[in-house]
Amino acid sequence: MVRAVVCRELGAPERLLLEEFPPRALKPGEVRVAIRAAGLNFPDVLMAAGEYQLKPELPFTPGMEAAGDVTEVASEASGVAVGDKVIVKMRFGAFTDEAVVTPSQLTPMPSTFDYAEAATYIAGHGTAYHALIDRGRVTPGEVLLVHGAGGGVGLAAVEIGKMLGATVIATASSDEKLGIAKSRGADHLVRYDREPFRDAVKRITDGRGADVVFDPVGGQVFEDSMRCIAWGARLLVIGFTGGIGSAKTNLLLIKGASVLGVRAGEAVRKNPALGEVRLKALLQWAEEGKLRPNVSHRLPLKDYAKAMRLLLDRKAIGRVALVME
């Protein structure tokens, strides 16, 4: 029997159920993967609550990414073999022991990663890549302000921003989170509760401000970010864990600034070539040891609600993975 986390009614993580199903036969062109670890992303929590832009029909299994071993390959499924260690990319369905997918959803696991790291890599680092390279076009010497730098996508932005040659200012809610951000390359650290970050940015930059703002938080954080930007700044809207912010158009006009929405997955669906370039770069950087997810929590599949609560309560540092026993 195959275990899967199932959403039968929208709401809090505790409303989800862990159920068992018989494995289904493969159709031509399909591949069976034994899932060893699944990564958690904030959209998984929002989707289960009915608050995400993608709203699957009930019932559904949450989870956007996983890693595991190929155990069966049907006819007409090419480019993959039994025994391959793979990353599985999904829009939902990853919180399970076993996934039936197509070869196009599979990516070889970096040899430098374990299953939990592989299962928490592509979504977070892919979003950071798309934000900083495709949308923000960060160049060496620019100042990058990363909000939520202790979270999964924020920490990925710190890593990639530093690799691109930016001066990285990391903001977070605790010394522990900032310590991890520093270990991943952050040049300056700001705790939200000790100094208003807009004042800190002005102090650090001698009043000039940030060239690029990476914002997965939103709300007041987004609004305050407009008050510490340089001329021509790009504000990257990644998410809204802190609420939906309002853009002050006068501040954007005065600074000649741009607000750019970031949807890494949708961008690839609109332009698959973008995804090919991004994935090739991310896999190369992983193999070279330049990028690695920080997995602060690894919990068994049965603790899915507890794992999702770690994201809601902002207790994770980097990423959280469900590990199959």
From TrEMBL:
It comes from the Bacteria. Keywords: Oxidoreductase. InterPro entries: ADH-like_C, ADH-like_N, ER, GroES-like_sf, NAD(P)-bd_dom_sf, Zn-ADH-like_protein. The keyword Magnesium does not apply. The keyword Hydrolase does not apply. Residues 11-322 form the Enoyl reductase (ER) domain. This is NADPH2:quinone reductase. It comes from Bradyrhizobium yuanmingense.
